[in-house]
Amino acid sequence: ELADYDRIVQPEVKKKSKPSEVSDDQTYSREKLAKALGTSPTVVQRATQLLADNGIYFDKDVKGRYIYDDQDKDFFASVLAYKRSEGVTLSKAIEQFIQPGEDD
User: Is 24 helix (H, G, I), strand (E, B) or coil?
Assistant: First the structure.
């Protein structure tokens, strides 16, 4: 019974003990965003770097780690969906979203 109790209570405790950086929107660490998107943190990091190379930057927390919001999550989801559906590289998929219409 105690093990069941721990499983039920622990997530609640973790949520309450973690201070929220932004009160309005959900924020994601690289790992949480990767999990939400069903990909690896490495892919999120690579996409973040490719976007930074093109002048698109994300917020950072007090420790200097990238934080992402729901809008960022939706953007990454679109890029990854395009990458999968078109069979292109991550770099090419990102190019389509930041410079759309050049090939059309």
Answer: coil
Q: What angle do CA 61, 71, 93 make, to 5 degrees?
A: 105
Tell me the residue ranges of DSSP E strands in 1-104: 27-28, 68-69
Which residue in 86, 91, 101 sits closest to 54, CA to CA?
91
Q: pLDDT tens digits for 13-41? A: 433 334 444 444 589 999 999 999 999 99
Alpha-carbon span 18 to 104, nearest angstrom: 47
How crowded is residue 44: how many other Cβ atoms within 10 Å of its Cβ?
Answer: 25
Q: Give the predicted TM-score (pTM) of the model.
A: 0.69
